[in-house]
Design goal:
- With about 200 residues, the protein is α/β, with parallel strands linked by helices.
- Helix content is about 30%, strand content about 10%.
- It is globular, with a radius of gyration of 17 Å.
């Protein structure tokens, strides 16, 4: 018999995280492309992020055909992919990002891949349209708070942490994102408690 599930956060009602949602407006549009294996993952942070950022979208998939991807990225906003620079063989070159394009966050759309690092590389590999997007790399990577999942290299953050850092960077306003990061700390602590039972 399946456990009752919250229709908003998609988690079992006993571990519902809706009370942790912190509505946080973003000038930048946010699109989260979520790997299918992350949808019901208990330690996934993207759902809390999505529920907390009004107007954000979360789309589940691993490979997106060009038509579907373009439909997700309508003009006139400038779309940037939150991903470090890469030079994978066979990948399309990323478009250049002019610094002046980042001066007005209300004209931007930030695309975030919600997956493990290994799965995010596969998503990038399967989607030439994503490969071509200009990249946004974090200029000052904060210390990770995501102790419930293993980072394989320094600077690897959860989807929520990385997105908050990116939006703070784009908006030049780190303070706005602190309440959501505090809620994330609560989420991590609760996960540790549930895991210990």
């Amino acid at each position: 018999m399946s456990r009752p599930t919250c229709p908003h956060c998609l988690r079992p009602q006993a571990t519902c995280l809706c009370h942790l949602v912190v509505p946080t407006a973003s000038a930048c549009e946010l699109l989260i492309l979520q790997h299918p294996l992350e949808v019901r993952h208990a330690k996934n942070s993207a759902r809390l992020l999505h529920l907390s950022v009004p107007g954000s979208r979360i789309v589940v998939g691993e490979a997106f055909d060009e038509v579907a991807l373009q439909a997700l990225l309508p003009g006139p906003r400038t779309t940037v992919l939150l991903y470090p620079p890469t030079q994978y063989e066979g990948h399309a070159a990323a478009d250049l990002l002019e610094p002046k394009q980042l001066q007005h966050p209300e004209t931007l759309r930030l695309v975030v891949l919600d997956a493990t690092w290994r799965k995010s590389r596969k998503m990038l590999h399967l989607n030439p349209g994503l490969q071509r997007l200009p990249r946004l790399a974090l200029s000052d990577v904060p210390a990770g708070r995501y102790s419930i999942r293993k980072a394989h290299a320094p600077g690897q953050l959860s989807t929520l942490e990385a997105t908050c850092a990116a939006l703070a960077q784009l908006e030049r306003n780190a303070e706005r994102w602190q309440p959501l990061l505090a809620a994330f700390d609560d989420f991590v602590a609760r996960q540790q408690t549930w895991a210990a039972r």
